[in-house]
């Protein structure tokens, strides 16, 4: 980085950014799974009616 940070501070900042991105990714995955389940239940109910 061009901010002349000490190596420890730069590493800590990169680690913090990595944690934030991984947390956001996990939340998005759970939201995707939660939004898919009701759709699958509806499809199963439609198949049982036929």
Quote the average pLDDT: 84
**Percentage of residues assigned to helices:** over 70%
- Overall, the morphology is rod-shaped
Low-confidence stretches: none
The count of helical stretches stands at 1
Give me the count of strands: 0
Q: State the major sheet.
A: none
Tell me the β content: under 5%
What class, by secondary structure content? Answer: mainly alpha
Order of helices and strands: H
The quaternary organization reads as single chain
Rg result: 21 Å
Compute the separation of the termini in Å: 62 Å
Summary tags:
86% helix, 50 residues, rod-shaped, 0% strand, mainly alpha, single chain, 1 helix
General description of the model:
The chain has 50 residues and is mostly helical. It is built from one helix and no strands. It is rod-shaped and about 70 Å long. The protein starts with 6 loop residues before the first helix and ends with a helix. The model has no long low-confidence stretch (mean pLDDT 84).
Secondary structure topology:
Blueprint: H1 7-49
In short:
The chain has 50 residues and is mainly α. It has 1 helix and no strands.
């Amino acid at each position: 980085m061009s901010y002349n940070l000490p190596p420890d501070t730069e590493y800590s900042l990169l680690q913090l950014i990595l944690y934030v991105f991984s947390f956001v990714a996990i939340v998005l995955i759970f939201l995707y799974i939660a939004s898919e389940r009701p759709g699958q239940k509806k499809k199963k109910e439609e198949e049982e009616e036929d």
